[in-house]
What we know:
Blueprint: E1 2-11, E2 14-24, E3 29-33, H1 40-48, E4 55-60, E5 63-64, H2 70-75, E6 78-81, H3 93-100, H4 109-115, H5 117-121, H6 132-145, E7 150-154, H7 162-177, E8 182-185, H8 189-195, E9 198-203, E10 206-212, H9 213-217, H10 220-226
Parallel strand pairs: 3-8, 3-9, 6-7, 7-8
Antiparallel strand pairs: 1-2, 1-4, 4-5, 9-10
Bound molecules: adenosine-5'-triphosphate and magnesium ion.
Amino acid sequence: MLIVDNIHSYYDKSHVLEGVSLQVNPGELVTLLGRNGAGKTTTLRSILGVVCPRKGQIRFNGQDMVGRKIFEIAREGLALVPEHRGIFRLLSVEENLRIAQRKSSRWQLEDVYTMFPRLKERRKNAGHALSGGEQQMLAIARALVNDPKLLILDEPTEGLAPVIVDELVKILRKIKDDGLPVLLVEQNLMVCDKLADRHYVLEQGRVVYEGSAADFRANPTIKNRYLALSA
Ligand SMILES: Nc1ncnc2c1ncn2[C@@H]1O[C@H](COP(=O)(O)OP(=O)(O)OP(=O)(O)O)[C@@H](O)[C@H]1O
Ligand SMILES: [Mg+2]
């Protein structure tokens, strides 16, 4: 459903993505791994139209995405949960959700409250009063009520306590089991291992490895060579 084909992206003159290709198929959870600065966020920005690739193609459900406006791409159902969560700090949890809510979404307010009971408890609290984990949950819930066709997350577990990470893993598994495809940038290999169908590893703007979860598990050299952390 998402096909990224040999994209080259730049920041001004700096050539950051040097021919990245990847694919997310219906129902799949795919991770994009790699060290700091490898180009993971830039790949996501290119998919979402924040950075416009100068070469290559991006197709989503058969439509060309390169060169289209950010809001047009979002309207096709490509939903980002950004690295720093991007919630409105002065609005309450419920206001944050209502702003994003689309009638067409299969996740309505009550559905995300069932999925995230913590958010229901805190629905009157302002965004800035939430813990890091709760902000991350709100960011995911907000993406869900906005009727996504593909959920894209940039390091959702970064800086969170292990119990919260476990909770997020369960939530992401539910989302995947519900049939929503997910593209996940993540540095925590335990999280990736628990969730992913397939992995891609980026290094200096290139895909240096692509494989199934089982292949990746059986391949410690990849982890040692391209990833900073141990499993
Ligand atoms: N706005 C920007 N302007 C110029 N260069 C940038 C910009 N954002 C990122 N870069 C550079 O592009 C390269 C890829 O960065 P990117 O943020 O995509 O990496 P990443 O894999 O997401 O890293 P991290 O794990 O630290 O989030 C890096 O060398 C980075 O310094
Ligand atoms: Mg990044």
